[in-house]
Amino acid sequence: MTSAATADYIVVGGGLTGCLIASRLSQSPKTPVVILLEAGSDPSGNTAATGFLTGLSLLGSEFDYRYQSEPVANTANRVHHFNLGKALGGGSLLNYGGWLRADSADYDEWAEIVGDKRWSWEGFKPWFRKTEHFYALDADADEHGFDGPMYVTSVSAAESGERKYPLREPVRQGWSELGVLPNLEKRHVLTNTAVNKVTFTDGVANGVVLHDGRKIAARKEVIICAGAYGTPQILMRSGVGPSSILNEHGISIVHEAPSVGSNLHDHFAIYLAFRVRDPSLGYAMGNEAWQNPALFKGLPWDWVVSGPLPAELAKKHNIEADQQGRNLYEVITLYVPPGIPGIPIDGTHIATSTMLLLPTSRGKVSIRSSNVADPPRIEPNYFDTPLDRDTLIHATRQTLQLLLATGSMGPIIESESPPSGEGLDGLEPLTADSSDGAIEERIRRTGMQHHHSGGTAAMGKVVDVEGRVMGVKRLRCADASILPIPLGGHPQATLYPMAEQLASMIIGDM
To answer: Which residues constitute the signal peptide according to the record (predicted)?
Structure first.
């Protein structure tokens, strides 16, 4: 690329949504010129990027920004690490391939907040279907698509039914004991190209300035897809953000947008490890009994269970009667400890992830300077509200009861094994009878984010219902930053159809 270039559309960020939107725009009938700018490199030549559990093997690598938060008072003043994909493909390079939509009520709340039914469950359905190439027994054609680009297979249907994990039935029975039942183109891609800021003339976006000073002009739009941390940084460096922050760093104000960087939400969670009584039975990965190749064709997990608060806790927090059935937490059983400090992967332990689905705590993202090379200032503010604390304590107790106190799992699991290592001295094993205080202390000392961040350029606050940045022209945001609320699923399954719908809106405006 020369020192100056021009495109119809500039897409900033080659992650999940940016790649999709750039592709759809370049395939549209008017064949616009699209330039996709990605700060990281192309990982396709790296064999580690295509292997089993790449999310674990690539954490902290050249493909990971690994930002750090400010110390978080609610989690024993710990500094949290944020694994963010620095490569073409973005976070999809580091995640574990989970495809979990939110509940229909979550999307309906989104639509109600922004006043547009296109973001409701029914509004999302066509885009869900367009995204998926779904395979499962008795799949509902109204809910799923069968010729989209994303191949999605349930665990039970994978590998012609051969992907059968050893604790699948006992875990199902354990949840049943606790009362939980099943619920049946013209395009240019530039890597290693960080964007400093968007340029404007009289409030109209007309291009971007790269990290090295080169400029690219946009005849039609600039579309920022840099994620929940990158998008607010670019907006602020471009002069769109809270005036107090822009003035502090000597940035000329293009548009005062106080909500840029606020409303940061993430799925806060606790991982627990459980020692099996007899490792020779092959319940956990790392045992020589794991010989079937089908077991290694994806993240070894089973039974994603979502649940609401019991009535007495819902009433304590004044949750309306018609909202008391909303699922507020998720528990996943894992046959391999996912990097829990001090827990070996040798067939002796299984693990669980217990996660807040609809956290009410909010944090913020800001810039440290106007320099594109400086990492963001992240204040996540996890576990800050009484509702979040009570929900995660209750969910953790449910997890402990499942693994340690049900007739199905109790004979298999010996005990919970606390993590060990720097800063983790004095942790005692949790039991099904542990006090709320003991559970809360463990959460504060070991709880962590699930890397599902969003909300920092929220729809209705920063962008309108078609992703257009309010107060300026020809600038959109189209990534997790625009999610106005947390959604009770894993974001990948929502972000693809969201991007499909936004791309259709952009094409409609051509």
So the answer is: none
User: Three-state secondary structure along 124-138?
Assistant: HHHHHHHHEEEECCC
Asked if 221 and 474 touch (Cβ cutoff 8 Å), the reply is yes
12, 32, 107, 121, 459 from 504: Cα distances, Å: 18, 14, 19, 18, 17
Residues noted as catalytic: 452, 490
11 is in an annotated binding site: no
CB 433 within 8 A of CB 404: no
Asked whether residue 491 is marked as a ligand-binding residue, the answer is yes
- Domains of the chain, each with CATH number or no CATH: 1-100+191-267+362-380+449-510 (3.50.50.60), 161-184+268-356+383-446 (3.30.410.40)
pLDDT digits (tens, 9 = 90+) for 208-258: 999 999 999 999 999 999 999 999 999 999 999 999 999 999 999 999 999
> How do residues 166-175 score in pLDDT, each as one tens digit?
888 888 888 8
DSSP single-letter state for residue 285: B
Is the Cα dihedral 232, 235, 238, 240 positive or negative? negative
